Amino acid sequence: MNFFGRPTDGDDGEQAQPLLTQGTRRGRETMQPPRKNLQSRWRLWKANPYWLIPVVITVSMCRGLTMAPRIQVYNHIACQAFKKLPGSLPLPSPSNLTATIFAPAQDEDCPSADIQPRAAQIQATIITSMSVLSAITTGLWSRFGDIHGRKIILCSTIFGFIAMDIIVLLVTDTESFFSQYGEQFIVLGPIIDGLLGGLSAFNGVVHAYTSDCTPHGSRSKIFSTIQGIVFIGLASGPWVGSILLRLLKPSESMTFMFYLSILFQIAILTFILFLLPESLKPVVSDGTRTRPASTYSTLSRASSSSKPFLPRAKVLVIRFMKTFISPITMFRPKTIGRGRRDWNLTLVGLALFLYVLSSGVYQVKYLYAKHIYVWTAEQLSFYMSLLWITRAANLLVVLPLIISYFKPPTKPRLAVSPVSPGEEPETTEPERDIPAELRFDQKIAGYSLFVDGFSDFCVFLAPISSQSAFIFFSCLTSFTSGGNPAVHSLGAVCLHAAGRGSEVGSLFGALAVLSAIAHTFSPTIYAATYGLTVVTFPKAVFLLASIFLAIVVTLLWLIKPDNGSKEDSYSPITQDEEEAVSFRN
């Protein structure tokens, strides 16, 4: 027999066969990498919340980058509409229009008092249309993501952001057809963005992706980290924009902001398509993980029915309305015993809705500071940056330290299956005390929102002439920014405690729907209140915000950590099952 284990001419075939098999087995053992190395490589490419860091910071930076130029575009559209009115000044020539659109100073042909109401109306139309469509479609996209994965939702929402920037560029091109009808055409951007889910669907899928690849229990720490990254991106956007304003000519800098935003978002879209791992694993045949029933298959069956058109259309409309309402029905109280109902998710939904309503005071706060203290645009930008930096510091440093120190401990559970000699026993998901996790998130959210409402009430009580008190209590409000991620984490824990942990994607979609609905009404409520009281008592908006937050804190403290619900029977797919699924597909 030679070196490779093959039989020579003088060897007997019956004796050579087992030696051949043995030699081949040994060669495979030496040539194949150890299973542990394969598993470690697979774990490096598994879904992890930190894969979302470049996505979240890029999207937030693009929002901050185009925030000020977008206001300039609204003013330009209002100016164009004002000049078309009978008796107004004639339009300038196209050669001079580009320089006047993006000039830092106000256009002399369009007095500020004449175009500001129209610009505010354009902005309100854009925000309202986008919020309404997002409220309608976010639930649908969330259910779609529960079935087909999170990456497709991330891609669709970012494509909507890109479409918004492209529409703005088309409107600002004075030689294009779209510029002549800018006031009508600019609404197409939020329509596309809203139909694709908008920012509400993006926030919902980010929370769902994070929940897919984190263990059940409190997720306040990772949610606060992601929220802090959002404020870092928002704060860095204007900083990047100011650098570009100094390096580029004024006639080119603003349009270049949108081109840069599109470039960044296309790059992050490529990252999502080719590098970002999917967090939602396929359904395995043995039922390891179940998914909600597909609403889209129901609609397709109704559309392909042999019934006449009118009855078929009626069925489609009814089922579409049920699909639209279905995310909100998640907050309906569930029966957990004889005559007992679980109101925890209902209270979480109401708390988030009122909290988002209270957050509308931030936009009015900027108008209040500019009106009362006569701040310039530069002073106001410094004030906004200070708020964003303090929020980021709280979410990235202060709150994670508090959570790490006070979070309920977990115990790792060893696998029951026997192990071979020399191998380490595998561990499963850590054992968590779900009621303790729920109480912890309840306290984090309750204390944060209590301090938030208290700071607004202090602004209401402070002397109106004290700028230092206004800035101090505003920064104190920023240090309570952990309330929003804590409420989301609290909702996930309540869902898991009710035995419905596999519906976490639908939960965050439903929370995003509530947030979009609240964002639709919040600007109107505070704008009407501020408009009625700005002359006599301008601080009334802060009293209104503190009342909203007092109700929110009361609702949160009504949540029962141990209401008799059973713990979720859903368990994540193990490492071996993940590898089996990947090889099958």
TrEMBL record:
Residues 1-36, 564-585 are annotated as: Disordered. The chain crosses the membrane at residues 152-172, 184-210, 222-244, 256-276, 343-362, 382-403, 507-528, 540-559. One of its GO terms (molecular function) is transmembrane transporter activity. SUPFAM superfamilies: MFS general substrate transporter (SSF103473). It is found in: Membrane. It holds the Pfam family MFS_1. This is Major facilitator superfamily (MFS) profile domain-containing protein. Residues 575-585 have a biased composition (Acidic residues).
